Amino acid sequence: MDMEKRIHLELRNRTPSDVRELVLDNCRSVEGKIEGLTAEFVNLEFLSLINVGLISVSNLPKLGKLKKLELSDNRISGGLDVLAEKLPNLTHLNLSGNKLKDISTLEPLKKLDNLKSLDLFNCEVTNLNDYRESVFKLLPQLTYLDGYDIEDREASDSDGEVDGDGVDDDEDEEGEEEEDEDGEEEDFDEEEEDEEDEEEVEGEEDDEEVSGEDEEEDFGQDGEGDEEDDDDDEDEEEAEAGKGEKRKRGAEDEDEDDDDDDDD
């Protein structure tokens, strides 16, 4: 995809003045120049043109609010004076992986008064003797060169990023969303645990009720058995009493018979 089409795609029905950051990495530049980017992007703060085959930045429009420019992995060998003319408020510039060979090609950057960070990784200029000392001497406004200050202290994350470029804000929002999701998952897990605890308690109560019912049934059966035993005892006593009465009656009859014999 060529650069003009990519810019149109990145707009997403917005006007150029609404855009604060524009990423055009890996698109194709025609004849190694910037195309489709105009001064209408008046609020642009972050521009990324990584690996687009740039040879020159001569077509760069004036972008007064641009703070961070990514130009790594291109074929730029000079012509950096355009940056000082068109990007007066630039603070971060990445020229890693370009064709910069001499310290003198960096001299136009002296006019970028707000430039704090410059990256030249994988450029031939980094192989020169006293490279770091020479660059810091040439550009005294620099705080970091290739991610380290003049005392070889590494740049912090806050120093390495541009405030308000929109990239950090997106990352923060993503982080907050992840935290919210984690929090929701934790709350969901806690609710599940509470439900499981309630189910266990209810299960225990059900077991207790069932045990109570079993005991009542056992008690009822024992009571019925006792009543049956009592009835059997009463029947035996009545039978014994009946036998006694029969014996008594038989004895009385024998006595009457004896009396009759005596009379005879």
Automatic annotation (TrEMBL):
GO terms for biological process: regulation of apoptotic process. Residues 128-146 form the U2A'/phosphoprotein 32 family A C-terminal domain. It comes from the Eukaryota. One of its GO terms (molecular function) is histone binding. It is found in: Nucleus. PROSITE patterns: LRR. One of its GO terms (cellular component) is nucleus. Residues 152-264 are annotated as: Disordered. Multifunctional protein that is involved in the regulation of many processes. This is Acidic leucine-rich nuclear phosphoprotein 32 family member. The lineage of its organism: Eukaryota, Metazoa, Chordata, Craniata, Vertebrata.
